[in-house]
Write a structure and sequence with these properties.
heterodimer, A: 14 helices, globular, B: alpha/beta, ten-stranded mixed β-sheet
Chain lengths: 365, 394
């Protein structure tokens, strides 16, 4: 088996949370407010419910094939070649998703903090660190995350409390002004976000207590959903009708903080959250892509693939979009439906149905 | 040996990366903008006025007063078609990088505000250097003149005005608030008015005479219809505006004495809140405004016995009357003279009647202008400073 590390349940929860939150914290409010306006928070609730089903789907699928990741059990379910195709699609998805995350990472730093620095500098540096983390294996970046994520969550809570004087919670009224359709539309992107919990299908073989996988997936989804909800409510309460105008509402919310004449300009905290959080987030997807490639090629070790996969991610990330606006248009309009229908719900559901019909895999152990 | 070399290589690389930022700019290379002014020239161009800090002079000003003769700011202006265009032109006249991150206020000239604010505010919310918490003010006259004033107490007039805005004596509006008000249907933006007034005297020394000082101060509120300035509220009407919008209410209510002709007393407002309840019966719209105010009696020229319950009740009634009077003043001006809803009544209506709102939202200001408003003011006299009944008996 290419990866030999094992992580415990707590580490797994934290890993599944950071896989979603850093980008969610900064972007989610604008995406949902664009479609659902002040009802964006209902969209998040809806998305969290959907993500709970996805979590159930992922774990049910994963537990049927103990010791095997998605890249391996696809072959067991569908047969060798169709399975290879599905596994390949997932490798592509992880690479593509990571390229988008990497581009978002660089875009924010350039747009908001260091406009004169070439974006490639930020992207190369974080990829180099992520590559090092991935080479060292799952255990290593899980432990790093154990250190980072609690700090991020505490910072987010403190920042939200400090921004309280700027909030007017009445701005979430009236509820359901334009009916349920915009709310559902607004839920697509967050559902794709929180639905990244589907990565449990890759992670389960490396849990030291696989039995707890359900608990891990559900807890992680709830934590993620909760923080997304808070972020959404805070941003709507601060910005009301102009929430959707910001590219990074989470950042602008923090820029609003000004207390007692000296406690202001706290956006370096956002930068810390962003850099540290995205590093782990990228590492998780990077690891999944490298591991998947190794299992697809049936190699003994994934380490030789770390560098090539990283180069592909980086190159794709540079080539995919010519501007920040292009990136956001793509993520806002296309990414949600694409990721959700194919990779998060479609294929896993198909695999589960086929596995149940064919009676493959042990039910649970 | 290889390991040692690798470590050494790593150290050298890290020294290169970690030592500093890519686009590092030292303090001494920055021209820090403290306040900016936007005027519209007669031919439709933007005139940008920047008040820049002179850090050298600032350092001197902190020491003994005697040496601080040098002005602490430098004001420069230029015209162009967009703000960024002007900034580029100014960059050729300013030896340092123009840095917006510490900007406190942006003053809009009357002409610019009458013409429409949207085209000018965009830069300030789009640029990553400027902040949404920067105060927006509208000058009676030219913004340039406001920025060319000095302050006797603060290092610059921009900071001076910024502190006044922060103290929320009037209705202070920052870029975020302004944008929200502009984007909300059923709400029209407002901003503080800034004007040059006489502000105290600098006492003379043995050699020099004392000098009357003119400075910029907040003197009321600018009223907009959508993005265009339509008129002003004076200081007294601004008090009414604050009551109607239920903003943090500080200040003093002065009322005539109950017994002594020509004498008055003052109550300091400690807290208060406002609820606006809209009603709709299918044809007409009306509002019930409930204001609760709590205050302490801190000055009494007259000598009624405030330890008596009936007297206190009568004073409370008088406070209510005064508050309603102020609120009506602002309301009448907004309804009658300008015909714009600047009290967020439309927002309250929208929240209560989301189904009916779409019919009214496009002609809301009209509906608002014709709406009947009922006031119920509840006043509480909580304390009376350190004195109860005045010790007037001999």
């Amino acid at each position: 088996m290419p990866e030999v590390g094992k992580i415990d349940s707590k580490q797994a929860i934290l890993l599944m949370v950071i896989m979603v939150l850093p980008t969610g914290f900064l972007f989610v409010a604008a995406v949902t407010a664009h479609l659902a306006r002040q009802d964006g928070w209902i969209s998040i609730l809806l998305a969290t419910l959907v993500a709970l089903l996805i979590a159930w789907l992922a774990v049910s699928l994963g537990l049927r094939f103990p010791g095997k990741t998605l890249f391996q059990f696809a072959e067991v379910i569908l047969g060798r070649w169709p399975g290879k195709v599905v596994a390949f699609l997932y490798i592509w998805w992880y690479i593509h998703m990571n390229a988008e995350v990497l581009r978002q990472y660089g875009s924010l730093l350039v747009a908001a903090f260091m406009p004169e620095t070439p974006i490639s500098v930020f992207m190369l540096l974080i990829m180099a660190i992520a590559a090092y983390a991935v080479r060292n294996g799952l255990e290593v970046f899980s432990r790093v995350n154990q250190l980072i994520l609690p700090l991020i969550l505490v910072s987010v809570v403190i920042l939200n409390i400090l921004a309280a004087p700027e909030m007017n919670i009445k701005q979430i009224l009236p509820v359901f002004e334009h009916g349920a359709v915009p709310v559902v539309k607004g839920a697509v992107m967050p559902a794709a976000w929180i639905g990244e919990i589907i990565t449990m299908t890759v992670l389960i073989p490396y849990l030291n207590k696989a039995k707890e996988a359900y608990r891990i997936a559900v807890t992680a989804t709830l934590i993620t959903g909760f923080f997304m909800l808070i972020t959404q409510l805070v941003d709507i309460a601060i910005f009301g009708p102009i929430t959707a105008a910001w590219l990074f509402p989470g950042l602008d919310g923090v820029r609003m903080i000004h207390l007692a004449n000296f406690l202001e300009r706290l956006e370096p905290v956002v930068m810390v959250i962003w850099v540290a959080g995205v590093l782990v987030k990228i590492s998780v997807f990077y690891w999944a892509a490298a591991l998947g490639s190794a299992q697809w090629l049936e190699l003994k070790d994934y380490k030789p693939l770390v560098l090539p996969v990283g180069v592909i991610i980086y190159a794709l990330s540079i080539m995919a979009h010519d501007s920040l606006l292009d990136l956001f248009a793509f993520l806002g309009m296309f990414w949600g439906p694409y990721a959700l229908t194919l990779f998060i719900v479609g294929i896993p559901l198909l695999l589960l149905i086929v596995a149940v019909i064919r009676g493959q895999g042990g039910s649970r152990h | 040996m290889r390991k040692l070399l690798a470590c050494l290589a790593l150290l050298i690389i890290m020294a290169g990366i970690l030592s500093g930022c890519w686009s590092r700019k030292e303090m001494s290379e920055l021209a820090i903008v403290l306040g900016a002014g936007i005027d519209r020239t007669p031919d439709g161009q933007v005139r940008l006025t920047l008040q820049l800090a002179r850090p050298g002079a600032l350092a001197g000003a902190g020491g003994e007063g005697a040496g601080a003769k040098e002005p602490t700011t430098w004001v420069i202006s230029e015209t162009g078609s967009t703000i960024l265009d002007v900034q580029r032109k100014l960059a050729m006249r300013i030896s340092r990088h123009i840095n917006w991150t510490h900007n406190v206020i942006v003053v809009f000239g009357e002409e610019a505000a009458r013409h429409g604010m949207r085209q000018y505010t965009n830069f300030f919310t789009r640029s990553p250097q400027t902040r949404e918490i920067t105060w927006i003010l509208v000058a009676k006259g030219q913004a340039k003149d406001i920025l060319e004033t000095t302050s006797r107490l603060e290092n610059s007039s921009a900071q001076d005005i910024g502190y006044l805005a922060r103290a929320k004596a009037g209705y202070s509006v920052n870029f975020k608030d302004f944008k929200v008000m502009l984007a909300t249907k059923g709400s029209n933006p407002i901003a503080s008015r800034v004007e040059i007034v006489e502000r105290g005297v600098s006492p003379g020394t043995e050699k020099e005479k004392s000098v009357k000082h003119e400075g910029a101060a907040l003197t009321g509120t600018a009223v907009f219809r959508e993005e265009k300035l339509v008129g002003w509220l004076d200081e007294s009407e601004t008090r009414g505006l604050l009551w109607l919008r239920g903003e943090i209410l500080r200040g003093v209510i002065t009322l005539p004495s109950l017994t002594d002709q020509g004498k008055e007393m003052s109550v300091e407002i400690m807290r208060g809140h406002t609820e606006v309840e809209p009603y709709y019966d299918g044809e007409s719209v009306w509002f019930v405004v409930k204001i609760v105010v709590e205050g302490d009696l801190l000055e009494q020229q007259s000598s009624e016995d405030i330890t008596e319950r009936d007297v206190r009740k009568a004073i409370e009634k008088e406070i209510s009357r005064k508050v309603e009077e102020k609120a009506r003043l602002a309301l009448e001006k907004a309804q009658g003279e300008y015909g714009v809803d600047i009290f967020d009544f439309g927002v309250a209506f929208h929240r209560k009647y989301p189904k009916i709102w779409p019919e009214l939202e496009d002609r809301w200001d009209e509906v608002f202008a014709g709406a009947y408003v009922d006031f119920t003011v509840e006043a509480h006299l909580r304390r009376s400073g350190l004195i109860g009944k005045r010790g007037t008996e001999r």
